[in-house]
Amino acid sequence: MYFDACDRINRQASPNEYKNIWNHWAFVKDSTKGTMYIYLNSILWHSGDSKFNAITGNSIEKFYIGTNAALRAQYILNYKGIVDELRLWNTARSQADIQRNMNRILYGTETGLVAYYQFDHTTGTMILKDQTNNNNDGTLETINTWSTPWVTSGATLDQPTLTTISASQISGRTNATLTGSINPNNYTLTDIRFEYGTTSGQYDHNTVAVPAMVSGASLTIVKGVTGVITQSKWYYRLTGKIGKLRFYGQERTIDIIPLPILTIRGASQLNK
């Protein structure tokens, strides 16, 4: 394991420390103190002193996971693993900082957070979106050459629980009340909405729920909608955001209850 940041520290890793398991690796440099650290799951794994070469704006031109194409050809170096998240900071994170946040999703607005990549794509794309407001989007150079570039992550990260519960409909009308619940799990969720549409997995309507922001204790979420139920079946789900990352409850359906059809036919009258 090499940590290069205008200085270098390195140590031989054992297979039981990285093979077929999820880990949180953190690399920290404080050029003022001249120290470099590598943390494995928030525990100090390796360190080095007298590393005073400062990381300045001109020191880092590009950042690679693994190596770029030229170095791969020269040194045959590749990263043979799965990445769930990548976070870049402009401050030297303490061990307490690392331990506090390593299993939590970030909002993207934390002090010192320069770039935040969550790798939550489902299909191939060359752009890796930065989840901060710094717009440090990345490029996935070899995404189209991998046989299975996207896999379901098994990494353990705390997250909220959104549950789509039920919908009630007034018989024969186009109005409904949607219900769900959220366990924030110590996060603050914003932009809480119900998405809905007449095709499963495709939601061409959405409406802001009540409340639209949740933190603290679990809450029941309710929203009435009008004038949109026009088909025999309607699909909907609850959704909310932490920073730029959106979470979803399960999809549920509501069947439309038609009004009885009354037919008025002709009438005949007997003469008096």
Model description:
- Helices cover 5% and strands 35% of the residues.
- The protein is built from two helices and 18 strands.
- The protein has helices at 69-75, 95-101; strands spanning 2-4, 8-10, 25-30, 35-40, 43-48, 86-89, 113-117, 127-128, 138-139, 161-169, 176-183, 188-197, 205-208, 214-215, 219-225, 233-242, 245-248, 252-255.
- The strands form six sheets. Strands 12, 13, 14, 16, 17 and 18 form a six-stranded antiparallel beta sheet that branches. A three-stranded antiparallel beta sheet has the order 3-4-5. Strands 10-11-15 form a three-stranded antiparallel beta sheet, with no helix packed on it.
- The termini are far apart.
- The model has no long low-confidence stretch (mean pLDDT 83).
What's the average pLDDT? 83
Tally of helical segments: 2
What is the N-to-C order of secondary-structure elements (H for helix, E for strand)? EEEEEHEHEEEEEEEEEEEE
Count the E strands: 18
Distance between the termini: 108 Å
Q: Which ranges are low-confidence, i.e. pLDDT below 50, for 5 or more consecutive residues?
A: none
- Rounded radius of gyration (Å): 27 Å
What's the multimeric state? Answer: single chain
**Count of structural domains:** 2
Q: State the CATH topology of the largest domain.
A: Jelly Rolls
Structural class given helices, strands, pairing?
Answer: mainly beta
What portion of residues belong to β-strands? 25-35%
Largest sheet: 6 strands, antiparallel
CATH class of the largest domain, named Mainly Beta
